[in-house]
Amino acid sequence: MKRSHRVAAICQILTESPGKVFALKYFCDMFNAAKSSISEDINAAKDAVSVTGYGYIETITGASGGARYVPDISLAKAQSFQDELCALLQDEGRILGGGFLYTSDIMYNPATVRGMAQIFAKKFRDSGADYVATIETKGIPVAIMTAQLLNLPVIVIRRDTKISEGATVSINYSPGSSERLQRMSISKRAAAPGSKVLIIDDFMRGGGSIKGIVEILNEMDIQVVGKGIAIVDVTPQRKKVEDYFPIIHLAGVDETSKIVKAVPNSDIF
Q1: According to the model, what pLDDT value does residue 178 have?
Q2: pLDDT: which is higher, 259 or 223
Q3: Which are the contacts of 237, defined by CB distance < 8 A and separation ≥ 6?
Q4: What is the dihedral of CA 187, 192, 194, 196, to 10 degrees?
Q5: pLDDT above 80 (res 65)
Q6: How far apart are CA 38 and CA 60, in angstroms?
Q7: Total-model pTM
């Protein structure tokens, strides 16, 4: 195999498995090449990946050394994505009755969700999380893609108990949009006690659902090490949770004038 082909293959293998360490021997055996040649290939791959602005290849020295891909996103690319997301949200056709916004097409668009996940992955890559958690349903795509970039498993907290989940822990919580009690549950097998969890969700208004997730995880002796929310409504100003990280602030929806105001989080990194 030509060197250019090996470099391309190494780039693809590493970027498809973010965070996973591949030993030099893995590539030596795959390409039937010497370690010195593979080391040169990896250095070339590092240069190729770094120019994209979406991550870098990190080499690990020592007997068990190797290489891994670390997802990243430059400030300029993150801000450009925020502007694109704000433009999508400010389409007057999204306004529903009661001042709500239609966001399903955004939250189920892989390209858009990947942009959110890249920002969350950079923000929380040093959080020490063992899992990414979310509550069904629209938060699941961005949680899964964030988890993929961080090389972590996902915990999905249910609004209804599923018999397929086995033994569960359930709590009642008050969502931010109303004071009517709702219920959420989590399988006891979802995570081991003492684990650390990163919460990722699509939208937050009052913070009731996020507070409920924190409480149900605490019931299982699981520590929350971060809260990433794609879109956060500025009202009410006082949320039920603190220390959350938004990508976009929803600053107002005028149902009469068909005006939506969305503002990027200026403290993105």
Answers
A1: 61
A2: 223
A3: none
A4: -70
A5: no
A6: 14
A7: 0.91
